[in-house]
Amino acid sequence: MLEGVIMYGESGTSEVVVNSNNGKYLYTKKKEDAPLKPFFFKFYIPENSVVGFLIVESMSSSGIATIIQRNLLNFYSQKDNDAILKIQPVGISELADSAMEKSKGVKRITLRSISNAGFNVSKLAGDHVTNKDYTVDYVIKAKSVLFQKNLFDKLRSSRNAQSQFYEIDGQNFEDISVTMNIDGHERTLSVGQFSKLGTSMDITNKIVKGDDGYPTYDSINKQAMILISLIKKQYDLK
């Protein structure tokens, strides 16, 4: 394992800085100034493995994941060897299940691109348009809180492995998406993207802040080790 902190900030704007307690003017940040924030990262590469895991910290909308990925890809592209680096998000099932349990219910289900809907489009759009020129989406609004995990599992099981369509009650759908309220935000996921709910872990209430207002190194590393343990469990790693 390898962990550390990257200091990163952006310049390009001039901003007035005031005291948040009394609103008193302090100074004006110049366009050339780049306030640096500390971002924690940890690499975990299992023994004798060609696959590794990268954990990065983000704060609100700020993060360094893209920066690290870009630099790693640039580094490998300049190497005179046959190494190929691929980077993609990893979803942890336990985190996805936890996000489902915390959600405030399914708001709507969208069944997309019905290929054999019993609806004559020419009655609506005229004879210049035929059924071959369109698809229909069904939007189902949920009136009560549904048990999301069971719903996702049932919808996913309706996919035909040969045709790749979802088959429900004699209708074929190219995709099914579910819109939920998670952590106060609406999220719409294809039923095949359930694991995307497990690509992040909110540790806001689990870290200790230092004198600078940022999480202490030890407290954030402790949370990163929890993620490592979940990764080991999911992929049966030692």
Structure description:
The chain has 238 residues and is α+β, with helices and mostly antiparallel strands. It has two domains: 2-90 and 199-235, no CATH class; 102-191, no CATH class. It is 23% helix and 29% strand. The chain contains five helices and twelve strands. The protein has helices spanning 65-77, 93-102, 122-125, 148-156, 217-235, and strands at 2-8, 15-18, 25-29, 37-44, 53-56, 58-59, 62-63, 106-114, 136-141, 166-168, 171-182, 185-190. Strands 8, 9, 10, 11 and 12 form a five-stranded antiparallel beta sheet that branches. Strands 1-4-5 form a three-stranded antiparallel beta sheet, covered by helices on one side. Strand 4 and strand 5 (53-56) form a beta hairpin. The longest helix has 19 residues, at 217-235. The model has no long low-confidence stretch (mean pLDDT 80).
Which helices and strands appear, and what pairs or packs with what?
Elements: E1 2-8, E2 15-18, E3 25-29, E4 37-44, E5 53-56, E6 58-59, E7 62-63, H1 65-77, H2 93-102, E8 106-114, H3 122-125, E9 136-141, H4 148-156, E10 166-168, E11 171-182, E12 185-190, H5 217-235
Antiparallel strand pairs: 1-4, 2-3, 4-5, 6-7, 8-9, 8-11, 10-11, 11-12
% residues in beta strands: 25-35%
Helicity range: 10-25%
Residue windows where pLDDT falls under 50 for at least 5 positions: none
Distance between the termini: 13 Å
Provide the gyration radius in Å. Answer: 24 Å
- Which H/E pattern describes the elements? EEEEEEEHHEHEHEEEH
Number of domains: 2
Overall morphology? globular
Q: Determine the mean pLDDT.
A: 80
Q: Please give the count of helices.
A: 5
The computed structural class is alpha+beta
Main β sheet profile: 5 strands, antiparallel
The number of E-state strands comes to 12
